[in-house]
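RECORD TYPE: protein structure
NAME: Amino acid transporter transmembrane domain-containing protein
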Amino acid sequence: MDNREIEDSNKQNDVVKQHKSTASQAYFNFIKSNLGIGVIVLPFVTYQVGFLWSIVLFIPIAFSCLKSSQQMIQIADDMNTDNILYADIIRQTLGSIWAHILDIAIILQLIGLCIAYLIFLTESLAQSLLQIGIQMSKLQCLLITLFIVIPLSFVRKIHFFHSTSKYGFYCALASFCIILYDCQNRLSFGNIQFSNLINFKKTFNYVGVAILCCEGIFTVLPIRDSMKNKFEFKSVAAQSLITAFGISIFLSLISSSTYQSDTQSIVLFSIQNPILEVISLILYSISLLLTFPLQLFPAVQIIEQMFQKKMVEFISFNDIEDNSNSFEESQISKNVASTCDKIDDVVVEKDDQIFEDRFLQIIIRTMLMITIYFVAYQVPHLSHFLNLIGSIFGSLLQFCFPVIVHIIYFKSSKSTKLIIQYVIIMIVSLLAIVLGTAESLKNLL
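PREDICTED:
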């Protein structure tokens, strides 16, 4: 390699590094990916299960989320491979079939979260317009959101949100502060009560929603890969998760104890002052809009890579087939190498753009958005839908897969502490999958 080639390579590396995030940017990104729609639905299900019982239930869920995330990061650090994804780890440990199953589960989970975000935006818009005397149907509000959500769904560069995620976080915090301010006003009149402390019957209405307060497993590896120093992310992730858990449980306990039977399925709707309610809805809508692409990105990434792989296989097969009858074996090898060069040209940095065929990108993302909008229109109740998504896909992807992969990858490690962690996480996930799913389906159907 001559000096010019070395110089060009260094320039390319500098450009890539400019797009990498710092530890603080990754911290805000990961908090935002965890502080999703589950946080503002959690007070409603907290009131259902009771003040004390919600704490007992949340602790093992938060512990399982923290440990499973750290397990995935530990595996990625040990592999020390650039642009590694959740499915790559599954493929290397469990095989291709399980990797495909995982991809499908991730797509369904993230689409489910985006549907929940869209339901919130639609209901928030309807509620805000109602405060000024304008009444609109759910369909009309969904169509209005098209003008904001659709452009965001076509953002192809995740580093675009490195600088904006902290502002989304501040918007979410501001809306939480409004809730606490409203609670404080009610407390001044002595409205706080602890009449509902434990209600075992509603346990599995709570678990799935609580799991979705820890929904960041899908962005663990992309955010880690987006950092300038990937090996810092383990501590950054732990700090982010603890912050997100603290906000979630504190807000749910205070608001559910204050609003009591007035607690709405979306806690922001419980605010008495109409002006504060609208402001809080706008702030949290901004926060979710900045999170929406972060949640959609891994799903789109997986689908585009599936298409990319099929196209690469098709190109390779055709090139070899066309030349197999007219060239010698050495010439075929050259064609294969040439094809590989073409493939390398197609595959670009995953953090910036996954797929060069813009037309096919537009088709994929358009079909995803049509699906999201259609399901959002059909869902009758947000909390039951979130509980279903969290119980099935949240448990599988956040808890089961990371534990199984970690056991296989570090099979030589058999410490008692690690085994206890495995057992706790698997018990939480299996109970949520079986009983949480059954409870959600009973309520939805």
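COMMENT: Residues 1-17, 336-356 have pLDDT under 50 and may be disordered.
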